[in-house]
Design a protein that fits this description.
This is Sporulation protein. It holds the Pfam family Spo0M. It comes from Algivirga pacifica. Strands 2, 4, 5, 6, 8 and 9 form a 6-stranded mixed β-sheet that branches. It is elongated, with a radius of gyration of 24 Å. By secondary structure, the protein is mainly beta. The chain contains 4 helices and 14 strands. It folds into 2 domains: 130 residues, Immunoglobulin-like, CATH 2.60.40.640; 111 residues, no CATH class. Strand 12 and strand 13 form a beta hairpin.
Length: 248
């Protein structure tokens, strides 16, 4: 290898390139996303120490503070030598955790592919993905909407460890009754928070009923309850609506 080629590769000129190509952009939380990494060698032989794919998420909490977090870090490629202009393709399949924030509101999720190249500028690639609700989340939402509610907004709030989640934040979904719903005169909103652990999804509900100024000031217009849904259990949208009807 000439001194000039080695120097140029070291500062990122003529360096190897990576490109992550996904088989699909939308994936359900708890499922897997697949694709391939295309590696193209530069002008000189380079040591590729490894390639990782990071599952990243960005969101704002209720106080407006921005957060960027790494949810998972997957090792895809171990060390190898990439020759000049060599073309390599590596297929991958990675699981998307159950507690990955759903793509509602200000939540953004993406895969960051990072290559560790010896004595060179490390190439990377970012690919946004859309996270659809976990099957149990979708069932709960369907049950809520069947009662005449619509999702109004989604935001994030800090979650205490006592809730049992892996992350220190939770995504809160706010549903409002439609104007023609029987609950339009009875309720202001229904707040829903999903907390996932290894065994189940815990659904925390907060019902905000319409009350007089004293009831609202003292918090007497709010009712809280929890529904624990084990993974694999048969549970329908009708079951959810019946549960809520007994509380509303």
């Amino acid at each position: 290898m000439s001194f000039l080629k080695k120097t140029l590769a070291g500062i990122g000129i003529g360096n190897m390139k990576i490109d992550t190509i996904l088989d699909f952009q939308e994936v359900e939380a708890g499922e897997e996303i697949t694709g391939r990494i295309e590696i193209t060698g530069g002008n000189a032989s380079q040591e590729l120490r490894g390639i990782n794919i990071l599952l990243m998420s960005q969101f704002h909490t209720e106080d407006g503070e921005e957060h960027v977090i790494t949810l998972e870090n997957y090792r895809i490629v171990d060390g190898t030598i990439v020759e000049p202009k060599e073309e390599l393709t590596v297929d991958f399949s990675i699981p998307i955790p159950n507690d990955t924030p759903v793509s509602f509101g200000n939540s953004t999720t993406w895969l960051r592919t990072e290559a560790d190249v010896a004595q060179a500028v490390d190439p990377e690639d970012n690919d946004e993905i859309i996270i659809a609700p976990h099957a149990l989340q979708a069932t709960v939402m369907e049950g809520i909407e069947s009662l005449g509610f619509s999702l109004r907004q989604a935001e994030f709030e800090y979650a205490p460890p006592s809730l049992g989640g892996r992350l220190d934040f939770a995504q809160e979904l706010e549903f409002a009754p439609n104007s023609n719903s029987i609950f339009a005169r009875k309720m202001d909103e229904l707040e829903v928070v999903f907390i996932m652990d290894a065994h189940s999804i815990k659904v925390y509900f907060e019902i905000d009923k319409k009350g007089n100024w004293l009831e609202e000031r003292m918090g007497l217009d709010e009712t809280k309850m929890m529904l624990d849904l084990p993974y694999g259990q048969s549970f329908t949208a009708h079951d959810v609506s019946e549960f809520l009807l007994n509380q509303l």
